[in-house]
Amino acid sequence: MKPEIRQALRDGERKGSAYRLEWPPLGPSGAMGARLGRRVGTSIDFQDYREYQPGDDLRFVDWNVYARTDRMAIKLFREEVTPHLDLLIDGSRSMDLEGTVKGAAVAYLAGALAVAAGRSLCTRAVWLSGEGFQRLRNDVWSPSIWDGLEFESVRTPEEALEGLPPRLQRLGMRVFLSDLLWPGEPAHVVRRLVTGGAGLVVVQILTREELDPPARGGVRLTDSETGEALDLHVDHEVVRQYRSALARWQETWAGTCRACGAWLTTVVAEEVLEGRLGLDRLGLLVPG
Fold first, then answer.
1. In Å, what is the CA distance from 220 to each residue of 73, 210, 224, 231?
2. Which Pfam families match (predicted)?
3. CATH of domain 3-29+83-287
4. Which residue in 1, 24, 20 sits closest to 201, CA to CA?
5. pLDDT band at residue 50, thresholds of 50, 70 and 90?
6. Could you tell me the strand order of the sheet in which 123-129 lies?
7. pLDDT band at 49 (very low <50, low <70, confident <90, very high)
8. What residue spans define the domains of the chain?
9. Which run of H or E residues covers position 60?
10. Are 200 and 193 in contact, with CB atoms under 8 Å apart?
């Protein structure tokens, strides 16, 4: 792992200690834990009755109801749950281009989110895309000792989802950190990540130059994943066309997220590391 990525994890860890996760109304889900969910479970919090079905556990039959009505009824209890965060990181090469701080900004946000999750009594899993989605080593420990956060994949997150999808926890919260700069269909990714979850936040991280590139004249552009090169004269008209295309692409992602019930926000990598970004802008973190 690069030293600057390691340092960004440490800095994010410190920043996250002032925040906690704010859960959506649907609520998270796990096995047994410290919060009440909306599904039926096995806690001591009585919720309702339903009619007995063959195979039901007789220990949960309310015999008082049977004595009064001559009908067997099963007690239902509200599920007690442990909230969970699945943090998904785009591990493609475009996330850590030479001479940019995008990779460090991703590490900073990941560290902050992980610590805020812990302060909210959440379990967590951190996933990095590559050939597929793999758990980051040491992800249950402090972000400063995570291992393997490297941006080396030539596959897009969409391809990684097809190759080996992450094992996301049902009704857990999902956060996806990416620049979203790959060709494909956003709906394929958003639908996969939102299905079965309590909520999905997509955080697009871009550098200032990606948002507002200068007119450089003659340049050679090299695709970080494919290695393909393109010689181009970048003048003000080309910059205008680029900005317009980026805006359309962002609106495509935003529209897809709205349609699927997810939340999309775009942050500037430099502002993240300069401390100019209030983390509450992510729609998930609140001070406290």
1. 73, 15, 12, 4
2. DUF58
3. 3.40.50
4. 24
5. low
6. 133-135, 123-129, 84-89, 173-178, 199-206, 263-268
7. low
8. 3-29+83-287, 35-81
9. none
10. yes
